[in-house]
Amino acid sequence: MATFPPLINETAGGKTMLWSIKVTKTKEGYGRIEVERGQEGGKVIHEEKIVTEGKNIGKKNETSPLEQAILEARSTMSKKLSAGYVEAKARGGAGGPSLSAAASVRAEPTASSSESASAKASAMSTAESIAPSRAAAIDTEVPLPMLAERFQDRGSKIKYPAFVQPKFDGTRTVAICGVKGSSPCLFSRTRKAYPHLEHIQEVVRQLPKGLILDGELYTNEYNFQEIVGTVKKKTLTKEDALKHGHIQLHVYDIIIEDIPFEKRWEMLQAIFERFKDKIGTVLQLCKTEVVSNPEEVVEKHDEYVEEGYEGIMIRNAAGLYKVGGRSNDLQKLKTFMDAEYEIVGFYEGDGAEKGCVMWRCKTADGKVFGCRPKGTHEERAELFKHGSEYIGKMLTVKFQELTEDGIPRFPVGIVIRDYE
Fold this sequence. Notes:
Elements: E1 2-3, E2 7-10, E3 16-25, E4 31-39, E5 45-51, H1 65-82, E6 86-87, H2 113-121, H3 123-138, E7 147-150, H4 151-154, E8 162-167, E9 171-176, E10 186-187, H5 198-205, E11 212-218, H6 224-231, H7 238-246, E12 248-254, H8 261-274, H9 276-279, E13 283-285, E14 289-291, H10 294-306, E15 311-315, E16 326-333, E17 337-348, E18 357-362, E19 368-373, H11 377-385, E20 394-399, E21 401-402, E22 408-409, E23 412-416
Parallel strand pairs: 7-16, 12-13, 19-23
Antiparallel strand pairs: 1-3, 2-3, 2-6, 3-4, 4-5, 8-14, 8-15, 9-10, 9-11, 11-12, 15-16, 17-18, 17-20, 18-19, 20-23, 21-22
Helix pairs in contact: 1-3, 3-8
């Protein structure tokens, strides 16, 4: 069962409206969404919906009927909060008003245009009140972040003006705010907890419970391999600990469905402003700018690359957050290509490369190619000693282009994806 905090709202006419939602499991295993709403002191209206099917069946982000019901309830809760409702406790009273205490009710009015505009103008209020609504769903499962499409393939789906952000060469991170005690609150894009980075986790735990940040562990002082190599370690050397101190969480989005990015960005700015004393420099708000056409996207891309970033991310202003899937509302542009390939073997280099590992990788259609990994002679020699341990793992390969046979041209192994 998933229970959410009751909400309350005062209309322009001075009436107090109450609303609550919860999800239970039926004996058949379906999800039951129950809503109670009404005017304070009036009759309670009960609404019920049974969710009999999940979504994305057979895919990584597949949901059961119960999980789908919880997602729908969270979405409905978010819409109420965006319309001006707040958690009942915020208005006073230990547990908030009880819906069951009422006696006659008219249909619940929708927010007027002036109320809606007022709600949009107060991003901080929405951001703070939205956090508790998500807490019930994050205890058992960390949401998978939204993934980007390639601008070269889907650029026509971008609606201008659009938002752009620099593309970091770091590790994708989902930050669960408000976690109590010493429980981990930083997770990779495949839900693996990062074991250390306590200077970041301490800050994230102090932010509103239920708020979920989408960002990247990054520092311009170290390259990608150095960042990955240190954040995934379970045991730290003194050198690792020093490196950790330089790593920051660069935040570029909030994971919340059914609210457009433009609004999410307003909320994110408000959160950073409200909690700036706690955040300090440990969390960084990602630079976000507006472009008016594809030419400006390319100009900004070149500018970001010159500044040392990997490329550019493009976001539709009205784009929604697609948990666990790729979206046309989030696109990436880089001057080089990269992809993940399975390691199927390894061999020793020759000449100056003697003693160093060379990987054999396989394309999706079974073509095998050789790939030289990045790294020092010592690092690659160590990999060669334990090469068999990496067979079956995925290697991120950077390359110039694909040949007519679909094989990467001038491939370089960047990192083995065993850190997520």
